[in-house]
Design a protein that fits this description.
61% helix, flat, Helicase, Ruva Protein, domain 3, two-stranded antiparallel ribbon, 8 helices, mainly alpha
């Protein structure tokens, strides 16, 4: 996300530090939200797609890296929470597209938002200006759908 322009930053400050409280309106009720959450968890994931996610998460760890950049630039890879986030987000992507199960493409589409804050760089990565997005993108590029 780019840093806001000066005028936009003034607008943000005016809205968030003044005395006027923002108007809040419900866009979704509690029952509907719980129903949607239940539906997402019922979406099946094919074992090869789940395995792709597992191998992606493993690929972010220096000790299990499939690519040299991870060994060189990453201090800590993603935890299992990253895999959970990818699976749930991929299920949502599938439902939004009118499909009943997530695909490899859904996984690739949600991987960066799910992992960018879960892959921590080492000193060399920081010094070289590498980002976690670059690392995750390279792992994805090197990762075959099927082992």
């Amino acid at each position: 996300m780019e840093f806001p322009a000066r005028a936009d930053l003034h607008g943000i400050l005016d809205r968030t530090t003044g005395t006027e409280a923002p108007a809040v309106r419900a866009v979704l009720g509690r029952d509907r939200l719980l129903e949607m959450r239940k539906l997402v968890r019922e979406v099946p994931v094919a074992r090869p797609v789940q395995d792709y996610v597992v191998r992606l998460i493993e690929g972010t760890h220096p000790a299990r890296a499939a690519i040299p950049d991870v060994e060189r630039f990453v201090r800590y890879g993603s935890s299992p929470r990253g895999a959970q986030a990818i699976i749930l987000a991929a299920k949502i992507e599938a439902l939004r597209a009118g499909r009943f199960a997530p695909s490899f493409a859904d996984v690739r589409r949600v991987a960066l938002p799910a992992l960018r804050h879960r892959v921590l760089l080492n000193f060399e990565g920081e010094a070289e200006g590498v980002t976690s997005d670059v690392i995750v993108g390279r792992v994805l590029a090197a990762l075959p759908e099927m082992p």
